[in-house]
Amino acid sequence: MTGGRPLLEIHPADTWADHVADAVAERLAANPDLVVALPTGSTPLPVYERLPAALAAAGASFGAATVVVLDEFIGLPVDHPVRCDAVLRRTLLDRLERPPARFVIFDVDEPDPDAACAAVDDAVAAAGGLDLVILGLGANGHVGMNEPGSAPDAPSRAVDLAPSTIEAARRYGADPAPSRGVTLGMAPILAAREIWLLISGTHKAGILQRTLSDPITSAVPAALLRGHPGLRLIADDRAASGWPARPRS
Ligand code: GLP
Fold it and tell me: What is the pTM of this model?
């Protein structure tokens, strides 16, 4: 913490994704059997695009790592291109020279979504717990599918999606858009050793402001991350307009 708020790392928009990709590659170089939860959405796309080259440059790979999908929609058929597991495969895993040793996904095709969540939690525990959770920031402050109202001790669970999340799914190409999902809960996210919250674009400036400045309540789930000792907020200068850059200490 610096000056009463978590350290905000600000990078120029044109190098932000390179910076994040290099940071992921460095983590994998240092800890090849990393257990990492990864988000979908548009924010990480340029990072995933750059990751294969960043891994090659760092002499690192996902070959011994465990990748956990952060969340998943309920109700999309198994081969639907908007499903989070499909998006992660398409945008990252299929492009890697060495795929991860384990890819942990929510089995939303089984009738009991809470059992699917328990299976993901069990797989994470069996892998030794989450070393790193990488998150995007929802327009309403959600992380994963932990929508406003999610308590810090919320477990992995099935959730009703907020209207803005349903609309986002429609924009991604799910029509009809799903209204429910499953997500790693706030509790397992907060139990990770490190949390990196990625924020890019001017359209995220307002919710980043609230994430950093609002009272720490469930109204903005991302604000619940403040105070986690391993939290990094990695923003581009468009999302962070209005915040003075502070050097990392
Ligand atoms: C989505 C996903 C999140 C994602 C967030 C931000 O609804 N559930 O995992 O990080 O919203 O999306 P985007 O990066 O497209 O702004």
Answer: 0.95
